[in-house]
Design a protein that fits this description.
515 residues, elongated, membrane
Length: 515
């Protein structure tokens, strides 16, 4: 049997320099009779595992971008430091995956060239550090942000078919260096092990589509209507959150519901604010430095009206879209004040948009008075009551009795022994499976899921039949005329067969070519 083809000496020398840090020619390396030892094979296997480990983390990092604004807010509350940590995450992940990918590519090329895989000690240390960093990232995610694992499972409904094609392609390309290694080794047991392991993996990959499910594998005429958009605190990518400017920007995005949070001032005026403290979205530290750490409800309405609720948006740039704002929008943002609930209801009535809100904080000792003050403002505003969507669970029965026209939105799934059937539910998107969404839709229960920012996630929920989604990115989802992809089952079956057949033929070609 002839030796497998090898590459030119300058190429081999260059590969050795980068992988082994051996600044000698491949010819000298060959004369010294160096071979790949079992220890070298173990390090190659470790390199391959680190690459896969880092690749999985890259996938997870891309998926959690949908919810990363929540992480930025969490860090601000803890450290009083605002930074778009998603950029840090992506840059660090890109560095790690690039390093391990380049090192793996060098190793595969060295194998094809018939050169020993003598990994330098510096690379070994860096690989161990890479593995530890990624392991720490996974551990932190599991401890502090466990719901993102459910996000990852949902993402497979959007990416599963394409991940299958990519993995099959990658494993097919691996056939060339694998065939080279099998033909070069004289250990029969190792040959059999490599062939059986590779064959088992490929058979599993060829049959994987049997377990891939996605609501977007359907006929075009089965696609449900596009979900309605609910503006999360308005349009927070285009204007300061929970302001009148944000409401008007949401209206421009064809949003049907303005979702917000209501608190009540010390003198009984309901106003819009999400955080318990005013430090993130106002200049309270400048205007009232000695009271900046107090809860929002400790300020009276006169004090709240002195605060600037828009300049922080331009200074901290909570979303990348802030950079593209026009000059007029920037000027308008600097003039934003904290709006009262009455002002927002008037604007909603004028724009013919519904309003959905939480009343915070629910553990406050005067919460019942907060409910009464809020209901009084709603009734006094004259807004059609069907345009008001009530989220708070506290004193819900009292609200239903006093103002029966308000739509009740429940933050839970229906119960088996439900006395009154739920008509509207509002849940995190991780809490509802595609099957549950379809069942609720058949039972005429309106389902709103939050917070949905990425087109891939919106596409999956659209195909599942969700009624509406709460989003920060209304300007992005507004432009989507159909899901990112939609495949009839017959087309998907044909793609599956073609991909598997092409892969099988290429693997046969690789083993015949390297023989």
């Amino acid at each position: 049997m002839a030796d497998p083809p090898s590459c030119c000496r300058p190429c081999s020398t260059c590969l050795l320099c980068l992988y082994s840090c051996r600044w000698i020619t491949a010819k000298k390396e060959k004369r010294r009779g160096l071979r790949t030892t079992k220890c070298d094979c173990s390090w190659f296997f470790f390199l391959f595992c680190v690459f896969l480990f880092t690749l999985v983390w890259l996938y997870i990092a891309i998926i959690i971008l949908n919810d990363f604004h929540n992480f930025n807010e969490f860090i601000f509350k803890q450290q009083k430091l605002w930074l778009d940590w998603s950029l840090v995450l992506l840059i660090a992940t890109a560095v790690l995956i690039t390093y391990s990918a380049v090192l793996l590519l060098l190793a595969l090329c060295l194998q094809l060239c018939g050169q020993p895989l003598k990994l330098h000690w510096l690379h070994k240390i860096l690989l161990i550090i890479t593995a530890l960093v990624v392991a720490a990232a996974f551990t932190g995610l599991g401890i502090k942000w466990a719901e993102e694992w459910r996000s990852a499972r949902i993402s497979l409904q959007a990416t599963g078919p394409f991940l299958h094609i990519g993995i099959v392609g990658g494993m097919t390309l691996l056939a060339w260096p694998l065939a080279s290694a099998i033909y070069r080794t004289h250990n029969t047991g190792l040959k059999v092990f490599l062939l059986l392991a590779y064959s088992a993996v490929m058979i599993a990959l060829y049959l994987a589509p049997l377990g891939i499910t996605s609501p977007c594998i359907m006929e075009e005429n089965q696609l449900p209507p596009k979900p309605a958009l609910v503006g999360h605190r308005g349009a927070p990518m285009l204007a300061p959150e929970n302001t009148l400017m944000s409401l008007h920007k949401a209206v421009d995005c064809d949003v049907q519901v303005f979702e917000t949070d209501v608190m009540v001032s010390a003198d009984g005026v309901p106003f819009l604010m999400h955080d318990e403290k005013l430090t993130r979205t106002t200049n309270v530290q400048t205007v009232f430095p000695e009271r900046a750490t107090l809860n929002s409800t400790a300020f009276n309405w006169t004090d709240l009206q002195q605060l600037d609720a828009g300049s922080w948006f331009l200074e901290r740039r909570p979303f990348p879209s802030v950079q593209s704002l026009s000059h007029s929008d920037r000027m308008q943002a600097t003039r934003q004040k904290i709006p009262s609930l009455g002002q927002v209801l008037d604007a909603a009535k004028e724009s013919n948009i519904s309003i959905m809100f939480d009343l915070r904080p629910e553990n406050h000792s005067d919460y019942q008075s907060f409910v009464n003050a809020t209901l009084e403002v709603i009734l006094h505003s004259g807004i059609p009551l069907q345009q008001v969507l009530w989220l708070p669970d506290g004193f819900r029965e009292q609200v239903q009795q006093q103002v029966p026209g308000i739509q009740q939105i429940y933050g839970r799934k229906r119960l088996q022994d439900e006395k009154e059937p739920l008509l509207h539910v509002n849940l995190p998107y991780q809490d509802m499976s595609s099957e549950e969404i379809k069942q609720y839709r058949q039972d005429n229960i309106s389902v709103n899921l939050y917070v949905v920012n990425q087109p891939w996630l919106f596409s999956v929920l659209w195909c599942s039949g969700v009624s509406s989604v709460t989003t920060n990115a209304c300007q992005v989802l507004k432009e989507m005329k159909r899901p990112i992809w939609l495949l009839p089952s017959s087309t998907y079956l044909m793609i599956w067969i073609v991909v598997d057949c092409v892969s099988f033929l290429m693997i046969l070609w690789a083993f015949l070519l390297m023989k």
